[in-house]
Amino acid sequence: GLHQLLQPVNASYQNRSGKKARCLQGTRKDVLETIQKWADRTSLPICWLNGSAGSGKSTIAQTIAEWCADERKLAASFFFFRGIGNRDKISHLIPTLAFQLSTTVRGMEPLLQNALNKEPSILNTPLSYQFDKLIMEPMLACSKRIRNFFKRKRMVIVIDGLDECGHQDRTLMDEFIDAVVDACGARNGRVPFCLFITSRVEEYLRKKLETRNARNLTLQLKLQNFNAAGDIRMFFQSEFETIYDANRLLMTTDKVPEPWPSSEVLDTLVKEASGSYIYSSTFVDFVSRAGGMPHRKLLDALKAHGLDDLYSQVFSNALYPDGVPGNMVDLMQIMGTLLLLEDPLPIKHLASLLNISSRRLVEIFLSIQSILLIPESDDDLVQLVHTSLKDFLLAPARSGNYFINPPTRHLSIAINCLNIIERNKAEFWFGVQPLSYAVKEWLNHLHKALSEEERYPSDLSLIFLLKDSLTNFASSSLDPWLHSMIMNNMNATIYKEAPLFSPQVSRNIDVKPI
């Protein structure tokens, strides 16, 4: 069926993984009403909501998607998220939207089926062509029924987090925006849907969405122009009331008065948040998580100034519980692996790759649970509460002692991959994780470790481990690995990375050429 042909990803407002926060009742009124009026009345086919990291764009997008669904005017939705499955790859955007449209727009399914039957390789064509053939033409072909419907209510496509695509997808993102603007412009804005998109104000997106053609079709909303201080105060009050109620016996025993915290503390928190919802929610999560007295944890968290300080506080508490070094020495190595994997792995496979038990891995993640989304099942993925955590950990000037050095971590992942290949010997089954990941990606991680402009990895112990792992691999696994890669049509990977084994590169890391 269509699902098999289009292979959509779970990225809609309903079935995406991770946190699906919606706006707290009574908050973000101005911006929500502005977007709802646009969706109901305006002739402009595009609305672009932009704002800084953590300013609440995804929460607003979730709320708008739910409102559209309640009003029976949601055509489709796609929530990008960096580093999660295929939700950061724009190549999955149009097939996923098309599949959703087949379920929300009557008459779309047979038209899509026909388009795919005519051109089975359409998903390999340029995005502009896909947009035309899988979205625009089929929706226009349903024209009479749809046009009459749109006289009453226009359907909305919601796309959240355009900036969450990888750097390699920027050209494709430009192509997608051009396709939408061209399609809308050619029809004087009279298209069978309107498009609500959110993103940070990245320069490459701004250049595309602020061209003359795009400006004439777009309502641009800047979140910084909507004062969020009152809403954030309401959020803090609501969350802290819930925390107090959940810990009432502890709080009353310790004689913590209500309302808690005081108005002065709330003023301080609102000022520190500076309009950032991710700061607010991370702060509340830190205070509410199990372990310790909430009012004392609140005092600890107040020592942090801004989101970076709050992230540092979380790692400090995990690594130095009670002010002394704890037993979480693996935490930063594990976080580096989580952030730098080419494709995310569920807990049980990540644990296997790291050669530790799933239970131990979960224990380590629980030490920073206020900034992670930890699933109940080991078959599911651990996710970051917000992508700003990755930005923080990969920026040495911001993270200091908690900096994750990409070359060193990539080298560590390459060694882990080689070790899991060695443990499984010649069993190169591409369907079995994490062995499949190790077979396909070890060379890629080694390339990234040794190709970073700044420097080669400086950890000598890792260099020696790499030397041992490569020696073992060359003697027992190289031939079956090559055979497996060729049988699975991955010759290009071998050719691309072959220069790594030149004498010059090998000398730099003190490894004999293979």
UniProtKB/TrEMBL annotation:
Annotated InterPro entries: NACHT_NTPase, NPHP3-like_N, P-loop_NTPase
Q: Which Gene3D superfamilies match?
A: P-loop containing nucleotide triphosphate hydrolases
| Keyword Repeat (UniProt) | yes
- What are the record keywords, sorted? Repeat
Please list the residue ranges annotated as the NACHT domain.
45-200
Against PROSITE patterns, the record matches this protein to: NACHT
PANTHER family on file: AMELOGENIN, NACHT DOMAIN-CONTAINING PROTEIN
Name this polypeptide is given:
NACHT domain-containing protein
The lineage, from the top, is:
Eukaryota, Fungi, Dikarya, Basidiomycota, Agaricomycotina
